[in-house]
Amino acid sequence: MTSDGPSAAPTPVQASRILEREARFRQPTLYLRLALTAAFALAPVLLPSFQLMDLMLKIALFATLVASYDVVIGYTGIVSFGHAMFFGFGAYAVGLSLGKFGAPTYGYLALAFALGVLVSAALALVIGAFSLRVKALFFAMITLAFAEYALILAVQLSHLTGGEDGISPKLPGVFAVSFTAGKVLGVDVNGRVVTYYVVLVVCLALFLTMSRFVHSPLGRTLQAIRDNEQRAEALGYRTFIFQLISSSFGSVVAAVLGGCYAMWVRYVNPESALSIQIMLDVLLMVIIGGMGTLYGGIIGAAVLLTARTLLPDLRAVGTLMFPGSEILQRLTERWLLYFGILFILVVFFFPKGVIGTVREVLSRRNAAR
Amino acid sequence: MKIALPTLLLGLLLPLAFIEPRVYLTLTVAGLAMGMLIFLVASGLTLIFGLMDVLNFAHGALFSWGAYIGFSVVLALNQRLGWAESPSVGLNALLLLLAILAAMLVAAGLGMVLERVIVRPVYGKHMFQILITLGATIVMEELIRIVWGPNDQVVPIPLTFQGSWDIADVIVLRFPIVAIVLGVAVYLGILLLLKLTRVGLIVRAGVENGEMVQVMGHNIYRYFTAVFAAGSALAALGGLMWAVFSQSVRPAMGGEHLIFAFIVVIIGGLGSVTGSVIGALMVGLAYNYVAFLVPKAAIGVNMAIMVLILLLRPTGLFGAGK
């Protein structure tokens, strides 16, 4: 940057970038990120159990999905309830292209992702075009209506989507269940493991892309709009266009992740891909982790998915402890109730989430020093 | 709105070209009833938004609570005293009235608690309002599942409101007529309350400029609580009427109607009561006509109307665009 051109004084943004770049290897967060990546990469080697692999990859997938949602809600400040719908589009694209209409070949797999991305981008643009024009609040209501409609369609058009039963796509070549290629480092290399690593790499790549996106000048503009829309508009930014770009970008990432999800679980049905529950999960994850942090998704996804995995055991304890009372049994069964209470409490008392709070504490300590 | 009424009339009469007149009348009555029931939900939503600038996602849960409270009252009185099965019109009407009263009272109380505890700390922060009322929705729906169980239940309908009248070979169901009358009464009631009373004056002023009302020495927060409670009661009324209309209650019924109400409120314009009446009637009628002509397209018709209106008028038919 400084080598070309005369040595003009750097702008504040450039100055902060230069400072950041100099301190890059001294920051603990870089090593934390590397360690996290290594943990995800080594999990199948160190602890070869399918349950753990499944949990790890779902955490990676949802962490990236939450980050893509964070781009929309945390960095741009618009609430969307259609994010799970775009996730579902990606999943259904893979399911339909490989399972229902095409064949398990790489060509159809590529086509599925292309279709999922294209449809999501087009729909996100259309929804945004007529709902973001007036106020961002409309966006929340309209995306909710569209998400519900997509769910109804997926259930009702059963000749196309398989209805409630869903679709089980078969994957081509190295992703297929039957694929094996001996042992590497004591781990069976089969279709599952290959899928794990491919999806993990996709998640990582998407995460880096999003990190680049929110730290770009465009991302800074988005944050300006979030903080003060009128002011951003007064400065000459067409906020509508920027909000549109942001929501479409988030939706496209969600569609890719949906495709990856379908590749991993090899099954798509309305409840697992399109239901409002996924949207609520993602919302809670982003709030627990911290809005506008991108990395909060990792914590949110880890907490919620681990809790969800352990839940059946909890329920068993509940039935053991209160065998008689029906109301008490219902109380232990309705875990969604606690989910809702947690939701309210987190929004009230912990609105910055884990990462946001940690950052606040750290910056306060730095300022005191 | 100058174009709204002619468009509505055109939309009302156009299906006559494709449908036999008698069937058309039956469908129209059903559509008007459905529209009025949706209006009951949407009116509360739009009032709350207009005055308080709060988008209440918990409105659907209040709808379900109203339905379940009313259902319990009807069930209890029918089992103990047999009021629903008795042929007496008076007892039947009294039963419905008591159910409505109970549902509205409980919902108003719930609404007051919600406003005080959950909504008040987040005034002015749209995102947190949405999130926190969403959390409240989850909790309230789950409470319904705990108290009344997770399954659908059949609502006993008072005899007077069952069946239909046969007027000149046109079959007119009874309960939809009750629903239409009630809807019109509520609409006129809201309008008169807003136009003629002092409270209405202050609420209308608050919609225009809340700060100014406060400067004039009125505690606007008290009106916020009152309007929130009234809106909740209207949601509960809508829920109970819908429960009787569809003869069943389900814990998830509120969520579906919340989406209906959203669509209606967007069509009519956020904050406008008249807008939500027109929007609700459009949605109710269009749904019934389309469901008769092209059953497969019925679920999409509301969305289509909403998209069309938003393209023509981004703030909705009667929206102020604030």
Describe what you observe in this structure.
The complex is a heterodimer of chains A (369) and B (322). With 369 residues, chain A is mostly helical. Chain A is 75% helix and 2% strand. Chain A has one domain: ABC transporter involved in vitamin B12 uptake, BtuC, CATH 1.10.3470. Chain A contains 17 helices and 2 strands. Chain A has a two-stranded antiparallel ribbon with strand order 1-2. In chain A, helix 8 (191-215) runs antiparallel to helix 11. The longest helix of chain A has 27 residues, at 239-265. The two termini of chain A are 31 Å apart. The relative contact order of chain A is 0.14. Chain B has 322 residues and is mostly helical. Helix content of chain B is 74%, strand content 4%. In chain B, the strands form 2 sheets. A two-stranded antiparallel sheet of chain B has the order 1-4. In chain B, strand 2 and strand 3 form a beta hairpin. Chain B is globular. The A-B interface holds A 73, 77, 79, 130-131, 133-134, 136-138, 140-142, 144-146, 148-149, 152-153, 156, 276, 280, 283, 287, 327, 330-331, 334, 336-337, 339-341, 343-344, 347-348, 351 and B 55, 118, 121, 126-128, 130-132, 134-139, 141-143, 145-146, 149, 255-256, 259, 262-263, 265-266, 270, 299-300, 302-303, 306-307, 310-311, 314-315, 319, 321.
